[in-house]
Amino acid sequence: MGDTLNLALIGAGRIGRVHAAHLVHRIPEAQLLAVADVNPAAAQACAEQYGMPVAVEAYQAVLENRDVEAVVICSATDTHAEIIEAAAAAGKHIFCEKPIDFDLGRIDRALAAVEAAGVTFQVGFNRRFDANFQRVREAVAGGEIGEPHLMHIVSRDPAPPPIDYVKASGGIFLDMTIHDFDMARFLIGSEVETVYTAAGVRVDPAIGAAGDLDTAVVVLHFENGVIGTIDNSRQAVYGYDQRVEVFGSGGSIRIDNNHPNTAVVSTAEHLRRDLPLNFFMDRYVESYVAEMQAFIDAVLKGTPPSVTGRDGRAPVVMGLAARRSFDEKRPVRLDEVQHG
Ligand SMILES: NC(=O)c1ccc[n+]([C@@H]2O[C@H](COP(=O)([O-])OP(=O)(O)OC[C@H]3O[C@@H](n4cnc5c(N)ncnc54)[C@H](O)[C@@H]3O)[C@@H](O)[C@H]2O)c1
Predict the structure, then answer these.
(1) Could you give the CA distance from residue 328 to residue 322 in angstroms, rounded to a whole number?
(2) Exposed site from 30, 95, 259, 290, fewest CB < 10 Å?
(3) Which CATH superfamily is domain 128-283+315-336 in?
(4) Which atom of ligand 1 is nearest to the CA of 126?
(5) 97 CB less than 6 Å from ligand 1?
C-alpha cells in the first residue's frame, strides 16, 4: 500500500459525521472520497461539510468505485452484515461500527466473507483506545495489581435515547452494554464463561412497554476466575458516568469520570465541581480518532487490526446470554448461545 488510503463513508448519521470529521481533519493519511446514505439529503450535507466530491444514495455505487480502497460503515445496525459481505466481495478494507449485527448467523456469514476476501476488518469498539482504559489494561496485563480478582464497570448514560431508537436498538444489552462487554474482555484479557443478569425498568415505563430494560447489573464469571459486574442505567442525572475498577492480589486500579475542567469551588457550605463530560461525543472523542488512525495504519502497513471480527462477535454472544439470563432468571453459560 502507499502512504495514503482512499475511503468512503457509508451512513452519514450521528457517528458517521464524527468519523468523517476525523478522517478529514485529524488523520493525514486518510482521503475521504465519497459518502453513501439512503437519505440523499444526509449524504449531500455530509459531502458538502467535509469536501467530498461524491455523494450517493446506494452504497453499491461506492463499492463499484475503483478508487475507493476502504469503507467506514456507519449505517443502521441491521444493514451492517449485508454491507460487510458486499464490501468484502468488492475487495474493500472495512471499518464497521458496533455491533456487527444482532444475529450470530448473519455475523458468521459476514466474517466468513471478510476471511475469504483477505481484507482488513476492524470493529468500532472505540473505548479500547481511550487513554484511561488503556492504562487499566496495562496495569492488569503487566501484573501491576497482582492477580486480578474483581472487576467493576459503571456505565450509565445521561438520558435515554428516543423511544423509536430503543425499539430498533436490539435492546439495552446489544446497544449499550455491548461496549461494557467488550471492555470487560479487553481489561481482563480472558473470555467470559457465564453471565447472570438482574434488571428492570426504573427510568421510563415506555422503555418497558417497548420490551426493553433501562437498568441492569450483569455479573460475569471469567474463564481465568475473575468475577465482574457491569452496572448500567439509561439515565444518570449528573451526566455520562463511566468508571472502572479492577481489584487484585497486589492492589487495585480505578478510573473516574472525565470532567471538562478540574476546578473545585470551596465555600463555607460545600465543595463543588462541574459535572462530568455529558455524553460519548465529548467523553470519547479522542478514542474515535485513535481507533480510526489504528485502522488506517493496519491497512497501510498490512498489520492485523487491533479489534478483530472475533472481538466483534463475542460481546453479541454476551448480550444474547445476558437477555436470556434475565428472561429465564438464571445464570447462563455463553456456550448455550454461542452458535446462534
Ligand atoms: N461506537 C460508538 O460509540 C457508536 C456511537 C453511536 C452509534 N454507533 C453505531 O453506529 C451505527 C449508526 O448509529 P447512528 O447513531 O449514527 O445512527 P443514525 O440513525 O444517526 O445514522 C445512521 C445513518 O445511516 C443511514 N442508513 C441507513 N441504512 C443505510 C444503508 N443501507 N446505506 C447507507 N446508509 C444507510 C441513515 O439514513 C442514517 O443517516 C449503529 O450501528 C450504532 O450502533 C456506535
Answers:
(1) 10
(2) 259
(3) Dihydrodipicolinate Reductase; domain 2 (3.30.360.10)
(4) 1
(5) yes
Dihedral of alpha carbons 100, 82, 36, 175, sign: negative
Ligand 1 binding pocket includes 124 (Cβ within 6 Å): yes
- Our answer on whether the CB atom of 283 is closer than 6 Å to any ligand 1 atom is no
Rounded CA-CA distance 268/21 in Å is 45
pLDDT tens string 196-251: 999 999 999 999 999 999 999 999 999 999 999 999 999 999 999 999 999 999 99
Look up the CATH architecture of domain 5-119.
3-Layer(aba) Sandwich (3.40)
- Does residue 37 line the site of ligand 1, with CB under 6 A? yes
What averages of pLDDT result for each successive group of 10 residues across the chain (340 residues)?
93 97 98 98 98 96 97 96 98 97 97 98 97 98 98 97 93 97 98 98 98 98 98 97 98 96 96 93 94 98 96 98 98 90
Q: Is 132 in the pocket of ligand 1 (CB under 6 A)?
A: no
**Ligand 1 nearest-atom number relative to CA 75:** 24
Residue 335 CB partners (closer than 8 Å, separation 6+): none
232-244 pLDDT tens trace: 999 999 999 999 9
**Euclidean distance between CA atoms 144 and 250, whole angstroms:** 7
